[in-house]
Amino acid sequence: MSAEQLTELRGHGGVVEGLLRAAHEGRLPHALCLEGPEGVGKFLAARHLAAGLLCTGERTGERAGEHTGEHTGDALRACGLCGPCKRFLAGTHPDVLVLDPRAAGEESLKLNRIAERDDSPGPTVGGFLSLKAGEGGYRVVIVRDAELMNAAAQNALLKTLEEPAARVVLALVTSRPRQLLETVRSRCVALSCAPLAQDEMEAILGDLAAGGERRAELMSWGRGAPGRVLELVARDMLTVRGHLAALLAGEAEPAESGRCLRELEGDFGGKTATAQARERLRAVLEVGLELLRELLLAGGHGTVHGAALAAVRPASQRLRHWQVDQLLLALQDVGANMNTDAILDRALTALHRRELDAGCLTAPGSGGWAAWDGA
Q: What is the span of the domain harbouring residue 284?
C-alpha cells in the first residue's frame, strides 16, 4: 500500500468514514467484524481504518471543518504523510498488530497467536495489548481470515472482547462469519462489505493483464470482488477453468487433465511444497464448484461467464448435484490432510462422468451446495 492508496479507498469508503467519524465523536465500538465475500476489500478497509485512527497529520478538508465545526469522513481519513502514517505504511508502527495467516502461509490461527505461550511464533494479541500505546493513541489489532482461528484461539480472544481496554480496537476480517463462535460474533459489531459496482471494479483494476473476452470473463467471474480477480490472474485460474470445462464437455480425460493441473504454476502460498499442493488443489476444486454452480443456474449447460461452458451438453440436475457433493467431499478431504493426488483424481473423475449408475449415492436437495455457497 502506498501513501496515495492510503488516502483513497474505493467501494467501502462509507464504512471506513463512518467508523472514523464515530471515533472522532467518542463512540467507536471496540470490536468489529468486517464481513463480505472473499476478495471484496475487507482487509484493505480494516487497514484504512487503522491508519485513520493513528494518523496525526492534517487531513483532506480538515481546515474547512475547522470553520464549520463539522468533520466529514474525508476530513478524518489518513493523510499518508505524517510520521504515524509513514510508520504504518512501513509496517513499523508500534500500535498496530496484524495477524495475517495468508501472508504467513499458515492454514490456521492457533492459541499461541492469541495468548502468550512458550511456542508463540511471534507477537500475540495478549502480549501486544498488555503494553501501553507506544504513541499515546489507539492500539489496533487486525485479524485477517479470522475464521481460521481454532476454538481455543477464539475462546482466548473472548477475554479481550469482554474486558476491552481503553482506546483499543479489534477488527476481525472474515468471509465466513458463521465459522466464528457465536460468543465471539455476538460481542462484535458486524459491518457488511458488499460487492463493488462494475464502475468501481474497472477503476480499481485498470489495465488488467487481460483484454477482450478474457477480461470480460474475469470481471464477470469476479462478482464485484477485485481481490478475487487479481487472485484469479495470479493463479491462472482461467486455464484451470478451461481444463475442467473440457472434462465436463467430454473433450478431455481425467488423467491428462490431472497431469496439467498438478504442474500448474501460480501464487498458491504455503510454506512447504505439500502446503502449496493443498492450496492449489483447493483452488481447483473451488473453480469446479463455480462451474457446477453456473451449470445448475443455466439448467445443465452454460453460457455464463464467457464461452468456456458452451460445449457442455445438458445433464440431469441429479448428476450435477452429485458432482457438487463429490467436490464438497474432496474439499473436506483437503482439510483433513489426505493425499492430494488421490483427491484430485476422484474429483476429476466425478466431473467427467456423463450419467449416474445405481452404485452412485446422491442426495439432491440435501443442502450441500447451499452449505458451500453461503459459507
A: 235-373
Residues 40 and 154 in one domain: yes
Contact 351, 248 (CB under 8 A): yes
- For the whole model, what pTM was predicted? 0.78
CA distances from 375 to 12, 31, 242, 258, 322 (A): 22, 22, 25, 27, 19
Q: Given this model, what pLDDT does residue 187 score?
A: 96
131-188 residue pLDDT tens? 999 998 999 999 999 999 999 999 999 988 998 889 999 999 999 999 999 999 999 9
Q: Count up the domains in the chain and report the number.
A: 2
Other Cβ atoms closer than 10 A to 7:
20
pLDDT score at 359: 57
d(C-alpha 298, C-alpha 307), whole Å:
13
Query: Sign of the C-alpha dihedral, residues 8, 148, 123, 125?
Result: positive
